[in-house]
């Protein structure tokens, strides 16, 4: 293993890894992961954008694919012929936003997408992920973020959503996936980011939550998602973005976390894994890079902790 | 992907894998196309159901196929069936998801389907069996997020079937859960999921009992004990726990003793320290105490934590235990705040 001081970010390798993702049709895993393809496209696109090589991917091809995933009811599936889902709908809108192509959707199409999203909100303010889907705070975030990006977020939707999120708060200051659910860094991110979009961070028990989040860093520098669990690169995003939104990111030791992420890289074929020695994937590649970007390392493009988009695309949301 | 070891295959191994993949891809894609065609043509019959079973066996994450399977169940399998038939269908469906969960215990789609199936008609589902099933799963992985979530779903489903005026049955369910949660904590003190569940149950039981007729509930618990000769021990436990809620001061005192015991058992474990922060600083608890009682508790805990840190220093070449230091600071701050506002 390389000595600590030799660790660095294998930028070119990671770009290469992302570009190669779509050339793996001869592998069984490629077909088994179709249900995440649009989400994966967003993770891959964001990776090359953060690495400042947005042209590494075929922009026209991506837009064509996004449009192929659109259903008549305005929702997007993760792959053509797959059912529409809130998660893939957010990915679609984020991708179009990154590629400056939201205007490809007509007013009528946007209204349909908005209807698709709001029709999934339940009377208690929570959201179904799809027509049969679970209720989960993750879907409140996907819905609210999406409506905000489409400039169609109404007070009525906000008030209900905030009411639901407040019921998911726990004794440790964190949030779970539904009322009663255990605190988990990913659920905390979706709740905190939703509240930030809705301008309602006031309902958080900030000192308690910040302390809990700051205790997620373990001895090897990595962050875990729950107490007494193993650290994982994706929590570099979930924990750090939450702390950034609350203006407390400095409670994490950046140098140690950076090295933890570096060690999870595959320096031969590119990509980042959940932790050192494990198989890489595009999800952890993106969240590793997003974490490094939040910490300001490696001259990456800065990322917005609330919207999970490059900051130059979200400045309009931060005025006032 | 989580927790999968990275392997760099040799050229030969890579070729062999690709050769095998070729066959697998062919089977998978043709089955997938087949099922999606049936779905598009709105075919709801046994043959279609069987094909979704096959496809979901290969790929349990394919939520679109789970959706289609539910369409088939609603529009065909479950339609116009007798009660007996319904029970059989539901139990078959649960068996199918259980086989899958054994292979993929963290797959959202499978848990979701199980919840959907059981919610189809909550009155005919067998919730006691579900509770036993999930207990077994939590025995295998006591931190499984899905498992605990599922457990709370079962409890809330059982609660929803109880008559609103039947406070006794409601309380009994939650007393049982409190005992289960304590059992899990005693088995492994660093089970944060169990501590979390405890925090929810304590508040819930307290609220349920706010305007309750204690004597009546206690009498019924005693009757239960007589009827249930074999299980005296566990019912005694419910009775003891129940009595604590009559006076929350007693409960807090015992909670503090439990926490002191826990930190002296494992001073490194974060679960206990986080729970302690809550018991010491939450309004839910200190509202039920007089200022003097609250300060007494804080001072008692401060003394114990400082004592523990001395022991830790003896064991670790003079190094402080960071949790002790943090908690000491917190308690001192709470004491200061509460002494000022006399
Ligand atoms: Zn991860």
Give keywords.
heterodimer; A: 320 residues; mainly alpha; Glycosyltransferase; two-stranded antiparallel sheet; 13 helices; B: 342 residues; 16 helices; binds zinc ion
Task: Note down, in words, how this protein is organized.
The complex is a heterodimer of chains A (about 325) and B (about 350). Chain A has about 325 residues and is mainly α. Helix content of chain A is about 45%, strand content about 0%. Chain A has a single domain, classed as Alpha/alpha barrel (Glycosyltransferase), CATH 1.50.10.20. Chain A has 13 helices and two strands, in the order H-H-H-H-H-H-H-H-H-H-H-H-E-E-H. Chain A has a two-stranded antiparallel sheet with strand order 1-2. In chain A, helix 1 (about 10-20) packs antiparallel against helix 3 (about 35-50) and helix 7 (about 135-150) runs parallel beside helix 9. Chain B has a domain at about 250-340. Chain B is about 75% helix and about 0% strand. Chain B has helices at about 10-40, 45-60, 65-75, 85-105, 110-120, 125-140, 145-160, 165-185, 190-210, 215-225, 230-245, 250-265, 270-280, 285, 290-315, 320-340. Chains A and B meet through helix 2, helix 10 and strand 2 of A and helix 1, helix 3, helix 5, helix 7 and helix 9 of B. The complex binds zinc ion. Zinc ion binds near residues 232, 234, 274 and 284 of chain A.
